[in-house]
Automatic annotation (TrEMBL):
Scytalone dehydratase-like protein Arp1 N-terminal domain span: 2-115
SUPFAM superfamilies, per database record: Amidase signature (AS) enzymes (SSF75304)
Pfam families hit by this protein: Amidase, DUF8016
TM region positions: none
Annotated Amidase domain residues: 162-318
Organism in which the protein naturally occurs: Immersiella caudata
Source organism, top-level taxon: Eukaryota
Protein name: Amidase signature domain-containing protein
């Protein structure tokens, strides 16, 4: 698309150089024996130098609109085709295209670059159907049939698009509906009996309206239930690119996390977080991630797990893009995420000693250095608490003080809704479609959860909701309190990872020296709630921030490798903007940086 009156060799060379610098789809090789389409305004002149340049780069076709007069130009070895200018052509964005020519017509199609999904993060790629709101899945496999290929559009198509996320490539977890694409939720049975989505989830449409483009659907544990790598039956567990390549990436947003950590051609990933499904994968792959305030996003068109705790979240490598995208995506939602406050940051760091057990001294040093920076730069004071003792001192209800009982109530919140909204309807639909096939095959975790829920009642669920409300009241009065000056009177810190030790995708390796399973018993032998449950039960926002990486001796490669270390920041509900603002400030100060893809995050 040309907006100048005279087209010169210099302007053409500069445009192609800019294309090459900005885009990974465009290639200078497209010029060799290819076609150049020039969309010009009336009166545009093609300079003699441009004619020479066109011949030198090896173009075979020059396609011009009738607004450009080439009758006096002498081309050698170049076929000039003139087409009528039209509104559809005028609206064509710049960038590479596939052009099909015959005697009477010219067809112009968007060009995509295929990237190999060697980490198995995606179920399939997707592309937008031209001039529509629908998408179509793209199932292309490598010649070895080992991995899929994901098509990505040119970034050049969004030049001049003023929307804040124009052209940002997004990987989408396969529990979110996308018009024209099957939602499988990690289940072959679910995908078999339900039709292709005919409407895009409200949350996904919101990010599309901001200019982002969905490039594929990523793998999830079945129905977003927690699941160890060895419990993934229907789909193959994705490969965490960090370290030796055999570390766990958590669940259930593992595919989204792996896509962000493994591929430069993915900018953002959308996942869900009920009890840690954004935060734990973010910590395990070393990316930025956020669980927003509960009810901050309309989850229509998303497979539910626990309505009392479900949220949608994002993951990214670049903290600036992360904070901007999250701020825009969550604003104007059902629950406020930018409660008005004076603009300062909290002055208290809440350090729950019984919930943080860093077992690698190098990882502890990363934690301490970050907390020192918060104290030094923002005059914060570190307050160490025993959360379990604080809870016991504040309440007497055994449903709260007994960790086993509290864990059970949290499980009921997720399992009851997942069963009534997903499991039971699936069994009914399965029987309708396949009346002789019995019960639908499921992965071990949801199968066990649904069996437990068959005899649970609505009263059981309401009792669990009441326990959650009591825990929320405790947490917001004794741990992090809403504050008119700083939104939240304090920021609670946690580790959602593995304490600086490797946790493998192979179960047996986690019992070897120097490794750990994801679920650990903390010092003193007292089992606490998983730390990721706290913000979920209290409805709080939580961000996961990569601090650095530590070395470990791999039981796979038998050499020193590195794994990432993240820290979690929790604030009072509605303080998402404050947490994201803190991330931006820390970036400006040089405390936080973007992470890399591949084996090492830093």
């Amino acid at each position: 698309k040309v907006n100048m009156s005279i087209i010169t060799a210099s302007s053409l060379a500069q445009s192609t150089a800019t294309y090459a610098a900005l885009d990974d789809v465009w290639s200078v090789g497209f010029l060799d024996d290819g076609a150049l389409l020039l969309l010009t305004r009336p009166g545009t002149v093609l300079d003699t130098s441009a004619v020479v340049w066109i011949g030198q780069v090896g173009l075979h076709y020059l396609i011009v609109t009738d607004t450009l007069d080439t009758s006096r130009c002498r081309f050698e070895g170049v076929t000039v085709i003139s087409i009528s200018s039209s509104s559809s052509l005028d609206s064509l964005p710049p960038g590479p295209y596939t052009v099909l020519l015959d005697r009477s017509t010219i067809a112009i199609h968007q060009a995509y670059r295929l990237y190999e999904d060697h980490l198995d993060a995606f179920l399939s790629g997707v592309t937008v159907v031209p001039r529509s709101t629908t998408h179509t899945p793209v199932d292309v496999v490598s010649s070895s049939h080992r991995h899929g290929w994901i098509p990505v559009p040119s970034r050049l198509h969004w030049i001049g698009d003023e929307r804040p996320l124009a052209g940002v490539r997004v990987a989408l977890k396969d529990i979110f509906d996308l018009e024209g694409v099957q939602t499988g939720a990690g289940s072959r049975s679910y995908a078999k009996v339900y039709p292709v989505a005919n409407q895009t989830a409200a949350s996904v449409q919101k990010i599309l309206d901001l200019g982002a483009v969905i490039i594929g659907k990523t793998k999830t544990s079945q129905f977003a239930h927690a699941g160890d790598p060895w419990h993934y039956i229907d789909i193959h567990y994705p490969w965490n690119p960090r370290g030796d390549g055999y570390l766990t990436a958590g669940s259930s947003s593992s595919g989204s996390a792996v896509a962000v950590a493994g591929y430069d051609w993915v900018d953002l990933a959308i996942g869900s977080d009920t009890r840690g499904s954004i935060r734990r994968p973010a910590a395990l792959v070393g990316s930025y991630g956020i669980r927003p305030t509960w009810r901050s996003m309309d989850l229509t068109g998303v497979v539910p797990l626990a309505e009392e705790m479900d949220t949608a979240g994002v993951l990214a490598r670049d903290p600036s893009l992360f904070s901007i995208a999250a701020s825009l995506w969550f604003e104007d939602g059902p629950a406020p995420v930018n409660k008005s406050f004076a603009g300062g940051f909290p002055k208290k760091i809440v350090y729950p000693a019984d919930y943080i057990w860093i077992r690698n001294p190098a990882a502890q040093a990363l934690f301490d250095n970050f907390l020192d920076a918060l104290q030094r730069e923002f005059s914060m004071t570190r307050t160490t608490i025993n959360l379990t003792a604080t809870l016991h001192a504040a309440v007497s209800n055994s449903q709260l003080t007994n960790i086993t009982a509290l864990f059970l109530q949290s499980n009921i919140l997720s399992e009851y809704i997942s069963y009534t909204r997903v499991g039971a309807p699936l069994a009914e639909a399965w029987h309708t479609v396949l009346p002789d096939a019995g019960y639908p095959p499921l992965d071990p975790t949801p199968r066990a959860a649904f069996r437990r829920s068959e005899n649970r009642t609505r009263a059981d669920y309401e009792a669990a909701v009441a326990v959650k409300a009591m825990f929320r009241k405790f947490f917001l009065s004794r741990v992090v309190r809403p504050d008119s000056e700083t939104c939240s009177d304090g920021i609670m810190v946690l580790d959602a990872g593995t304490g600086g030790l490797p946790s493998y995708r192979e179960e047996a390796l986690n019992n070897l020296s120097g490794a750990t399973p994801l679920v650990v018993t903390l010092p003193g032998g007292h089992t606490t709630l998983p730390g990721t449950f706290l913000a979920s039960m209290a409805g709080c926002p939580e961000v996961s921030i990569p601090l650095g990486q530590v070395s470990y001796r791999s039981h796979i490669s038998l050499q020193e490798e590195v794994l990432p270390v993240n820290i979690e920041l929790i604030a009072a509900p509605g303080c998402d903007a404050m947490l994201l603002g803190l991330v931006r400030r820390l970036v400006d100060m040089g405390v936080l940086t973007a992470v890399k893809t591949g084996r090492a995050a830093f």
